[in-house]
Write a structure and sequence with these properties.
The complex is a heterodimer of chains A (261) and B (251).
Chain A (H helix, E strand, L loop, with lengths): L1 H34 L11 H13 L3 H32 L1 H15 L6 H9 L3 H25 L3 H9 L4 H38 L5 H10 L3 H34 L2
Helix pairs in contact in A: 2-10, 3-4, 3-6, 3-8, 3-9, 4-6, 5-6, 6-8, 7-8, 8-9, 8-10, 9-10
Chain B lengths: L2 E9 L6 E10 L4 E6 L5 H9 L6 E6 L11 E4 L11 H11 L4 H14 L15 H13 L5 E5 L7 H18 L2 E5 L3 H7 L2 E6 L4 E7 L11 H22 L1
Parallel strand pairs in B: 3-7, 3-8, 5-6, 6-7
Antiparallel strand pairs in B: 1-2, 1-4, 8-9
Helix pairs in contact in B: 2-3, 2-4, 3-4, 6-7
The chains are: A mainly alpha (261), B alpha/beta (251).
Bound molecules: adenosine-5'-triphosphate and magnesium ion (MG).
The site of adenosine-5'-triphosphate has 13 residues of chain B, from helix 1.
């Protein structure tokens, strides 16, 4: 009961804060554009303009498909990253040789900003869906690999010892101990992987011509419509937050609460 | 059950000299053996060797006349830190070893509850580990270790992280369980009092020779009283041996 109230008040205070930010933004716009004429109206987005843009894009029916396609691509690329990344991470964990030699390489590649993969990807796949998905995979798989390798490595050795002295074979050690023990860290790694994937997706989409949020963003630029650009950016942020909170956040909170962390 | 260590030595690659040198020891079925010695003298190493977590550099360890390779459920270990799994609740933790052995579910439940009851923890069966006190956690760990009916139970300072009162209560409980179940126990401790309270035989490891300095049989009725004259005598005698062997050089 009390907890519910707390949540409500937390949401309310957040909403009030956001409203404040929007009001400030409008004030800032009115002051800078209308009163002092520091900026030209076309160079400054305003809440009202963004809202109008939103109405327009909804009306001509281009926003929803853009969101849908981007999400679909993002999810597909992310799923491939999760599979490929965890396999790579597991391999690096199982074989000391790979851990010593491959891991530094993976670390290095991981620091490459995902936009750097775009030219490479376009040369391979052309201006296609595959090109974008390739960029997404390159952008997040390596970080997932490193994170899962770390997660497994950080399992306290005593857990493994306990299981071994109670008769666990190596498969049981993995399934019953290492996997659940590293789960919280694995989730954090997957969460980070998702944010990398989402960023990489945008890098890929702005460079190609497939329907998606990235393209809508570029259309906004081509039309010199700063409000549309702003709108798309806001949508990208909102989707990012939504998936982070609604999926990863929930799983994380559940796991942490269960273990009393 | 019989456990025999023959001329067992252990050297770590990155450490200078032997950690354990020429250990000879025989543990009988149903015996309660305590190992005492100063910190760093190799007590945990000895236990790890018997558990199979480490391999002797030379010599051999025979369980029922046979060598073994690596750890197994017939030599269960209970560690100083409770090492319960935080992703499992109390009963799931207690069942862990039986689950590894794929015992039938009802048998797992029965045995787990039997030992939880023995530790007076049955109301806590569905608690998360982080909801238990330190003493309760060690009791759950003990219950978990007991479920497997291992040939020998190896305990590495299981109560030393607890406050004195709790550890005293737990050692009394352990003794009761031992009297009831007649398990074979090898118990490592740095507390001489604990050793004299629990042991049939106390083994003193000396860092001067990295080996067994003395073996003392404790001829006292159980349960023992720490203020009993004979108890105090044993305690002094063993304490001197534990300290004396390194004190030599300082004197
Ligand atoms: N894996 C290892 N590699 C190298 N040296 C080790 C290793 N394990 C233990 N040692 C060394 O062996 C010696 C004995 O260690 P051990 O843990 O057996 O001592 P202990 O008697 O259990 O001490 P304590 O009472 O503090 O637990 C120490 O000097 C320690 O540094
Ligand atoms: Mg030790």
């Amino acid at each position: 009961m009390k907890k519910n109230k707390l949540f409500q008040s937390k949401y309310i205070s957040e909403i009030i804060f956001l409203c404040g930010v929007i009001i400030l933004w409008q004030l800032f716009y009115t002051l800078g554009v209308d009163v002092l004429s520091i900026w030209k109206a076309y160079a400054m987005p305003s809440p009202a303009g963004v809202l109008k843009s939103f109405g327009l894009l909804c009306q001509n029916g281009s926003l929803l498909p853009a969101i849908g396609f981007s999400l679909l691509r993002g999810l597909l690329g992310y799923l491939i990253s999760v599979v490929a990344g965890s396999i790579l991470g597991l391999l690096m964990n199982c074989f000391p040789y790979l851990h010593r030699n491959l891991r530094p390489l993976v670390m290095g590649v991981q620091t490459l900003p995902s936009i750097c993969w775009v030219p490479f990807s376009i040369l391979w796949f052309g201006l296609t869906q595959q090109a974008i998905i390739f960029v997404v995979v390159m952008g997040s798989a390596f970080s997932i690999a490193i994170a899962s390798d770390n997660a497994i490595r950080n399992v306290p050795p005593i857990y493994k010892k306990v299981a071994l002295t109670m008769g666990a074979n190596s498969r049981q050690v993995y399934r019953e101990v290492i996997l659940p023990a590293s789960f919280p860290e694995l989730i954090s790694g997957l969460k980070q992987g998702w944010s990398f994937a989402w960023r990489a997706l945008m890098s890929g989409e702005v460079m190609t011509t497939c329907i998606g949020l990235g393209q809508t963003l570029i259309t906004g630029r081509n039309l010199a419509d700063i409000n549309q650009v702003m709108l798309v950016m806001i949508v990208i942020i909102l989707i990012g937050i939504f998936i982070d909170q609604m999926f990863f956040g929930k799983v994380e909170r559940y796991v942490y609460q269960k273990r009393g962390l | 059950m019989s456990l025999i260590l023959k001329n067992v030595s252990k050297t770590f690659e990155d450490a200078k000299g032997d950690v354990l040198n020429n250990i000879n020891l025989e543990i009988q079925n149903g015996e309660f053996v305590c190992v005492v010695g100063q910190s760093g003298c190799g007590k945990s190493t000895l236990l790890n060797l018997i558990a199979g977590l480490e391999k002797p550099t030379s010599g051999e360890i025979l369980l029922n006349g046979k060598r073994f390779d690596g750890p197994s459920a017939n030599r269960v270990v209970m560690f100083q830190e409770h090492a319960l799994f935080p992703w499992l609740n109390v009963i799931e933790n207690v069942k862990f070893g039986m689950k590894l052995a794929s015992l039938p579910a009802n048998e797992q439940e029965e045995t787990a509850m039997k030992y939880l009851r023995m530790m007076q923890l049955e109301e806590y069966r569905d608690y998360a580990i982080h909801q238990l006190s330190g003493g309760m956690r060690q009791r759950v760990a003990l219950a978990r270790a007991l479920t497997l009916d291992s040939e020998i139970l190896l305990m590495d300072e299981p109560f030393s992280a607890l406050d004195k009162q709790t550890s005293n209560r737990l050692r009394a409980e352990l003794q009761e369980i031992w009297l009831k179940t007649k398990r074979t126990i090898l118990f490592i401790t740095h507390s001489v009092e604990e050793a004299v309270y629990l042991a049939d035989r106390v083994i003193v490891i000396s860092p001067a020779v990295n080996s067994i300095a003395d073996v003392i049989s404790i001829d006292l009725e159980r349960p023992r009283y720490v203020y009993d004259e004979k108890f105090v005598d044993y305690r002094h005698r063993i304490l001197e041996e534990v300290q004396g062997n390194t004190g030599n050089e300082k004197k």
